[in-house]
Design a protein that fits this description.
The protein is α/β, with parallel strands linked by helices and 398 residues long. Helix content is 26%, strand content 27%. The protein has a 6-stranded antiparallel β-barrel. It has a 5-stranded parallel sheet with strand order 3-2-1-4-7, sandwiched between helices. The structure holds adenosine-5'-triphosphate. It is found in: Cytoplasm.
Length: 398
């Protein structure tokens, strides 16, 4: 068995490496080449790097493509660049803008993994006769053969919890997981940088890419205005107790949990509690009103044991992560006539629809990923929930 769990010699195993031009995927290519695999590098050009959406250091700009090319030259492996701009715009950027206009806080990296990376690029790798597609994501997968499928794999959190990307990967299907390989899951970022130095890669000291690759300096409203110019319609800023506190220039400028930049002075600290796209109201309230105890999920991707969905009918104890930066906390998963929902034993502040809720077997680095879903809506502490419902039921002045 070789290190990628194939029953053949590395030189007989072809692997496509998804190369962003960053240090992580460059080291993946370097490691696999060192181990003797037949490695091909592919970089996807995801948007026009001359356009307003360009941000230096992001995962798909011109400099990055050039860096990936230079890494492949150093390693002596073939490198291809594929133009995915149109597809990326249609499946990632446009839905991102539309979700914001609906009052959601989307996770475009999940959409990107679901479409361009693990659907299109994966298909290209298969067409090129590759046995696997490897990426620089920090997540672990290991062989988990079943009676009907000897190639089945299971997903786990990575060793380096600070870099854990499992939250972004919850929607990866079982078939995709079986074909993918994540060689960095057992390494720390520090080790990866050291390896890059040892391999003499030009990207060894390159800064990490941050946030959303196509959003320059966190200015997502600019992208939304460009894609959906009518999304930024003015509306009222309303307190949960019904008081109209001011006006805003479009709900796309707000996210749930936001405190700064509300432009209302009431003497009390206020947070965005809800975005009502229908009435274009930004609803604000005290911090306690953000405290979320239950999240309803849509588009569930069930991984792990096949009995999970039926076990959840009885209430299934697990650990849930409702934001990318937090460790998983104890939770109970339910499936009944109300849908799929998760009760969080420790309330989370400011959970936004459109974000992900990912489920695990344990709180630590050894946790298996059970899958997850997108948050459709959430329920807050009883009092806050009641006053929000009352407010939303009120007719809105034209
Ligand atoms: N434009 C791209 N073309 C091909 N593969 C990509 C591209 N962008 C990202 N990837 C793949 O997805 C992985 C995770 O992407 P992410 O944007 O999270 O990068 P990262 O964690 O900064 O890693 P890296 O250091 O490799 O850029 C990358 O390691 C790479 O394998």
């Amino acid at each position: 068995m070789n290190t990628l769990d194939f029953d053949k010699k590395p030189e007989d195993t072809r692997v496509v490496v998804a190369m962003s031009g960053g240090v992580d995927s460059s080291v993946v290519a370097g490691l696999l080449k060192q181990q003797g695999y037949d490695v091909l590098g592919i970089t996807l050009q995801l948007y026009d790097h001359g356009a307003a959406v360009h941000r230096a250091g992001s995962c798909c700009a011109g400099q990055d493509i050039d860096d990936a090319r230079r890494v492949c030259e150093t390693l002596g492996i073939p490198h291809y660049v594929l133009d995915y701009e149109k597809r990326f715009r249609e499946t990632v950027i446009n839905p991102f803008a539309e979700a914001y206009a609906m009052g959601e806080t989307p996770v475009p990296c999940v959409a990107c993994n679901q479409t361009v990376k693990f659907a299109d690029l994966l298909a290209t790798a298969q067409e090129l006769g590759a046995d696997a597609l490897a990426t620089g994501h920090y997540i672990r997968s290991s062989a988990n053969p079943t009676a009907d499928n000897p190639n089945r794999r299971a997903l786990y959190r990575p060793i380096d919890s600070d870099r854990d990307q499992s939250w972004f990967l919850f929607a990866t299907t079982q078939e995709q997981i079986d074909y993918l390989r994540f060689p960095l899951g057992g390494m720390s970022k520090a080790q990866v940088r050291e390896l890059a130095e040892e391999m003499g890669l030009v990207v060894a000291k390159k800064a990490d890419s941050q946030d959303i690759c196509f959003v320059p300096a966190g200015k997502y409203a600019d992208i939304i205005n460009k894609v959906k110019p009518n999304a930024a319609l003015a509306g009222d800023i309303v307190h949960m107790d019904g008081r109209v506190l001011g006006r805003h220039e479009g709900i796309v400028h707000y996210t749930i949990g936001q405190r700064k930049g509300l432009g209302v002075a009431t003497g009390e600290p206020l947070y965005v509690v809800y975005l009502d796209a229908r009435s274009r109201r930004v609803i604000v309230g005290p911090k306690e009103a953000l405290d979320t105890h239950r999240v309803y999920l849509r588009d569930m991707n069930w991984l792990g044991d096949s009995s999970l969905e039926s076990d959840a009918r009885e209430g299934f104890a697990c650990f849930a992560k409702v934001r990318s930066t937090r460790p998983p906390t104890p939770a109970t998963l339910h499936v009944d006539e109300r849908g799929v929902y998760v009760d969080l034993s420790i309330g989370e502040a400011g959970v936004a629809p459109g974000q992900a809720c990912v489920l695990y077997s344990a709180p630590g680095a050894d946790a298996r990923v059970y899958g997850g879903g997108f948050i459709e809506r959430s329920e807050r502490a009883e009092e806050a929930e009641a006053s929000l419902k009352q407010l939303l039921a009120q007719p809105v002045a034209a």
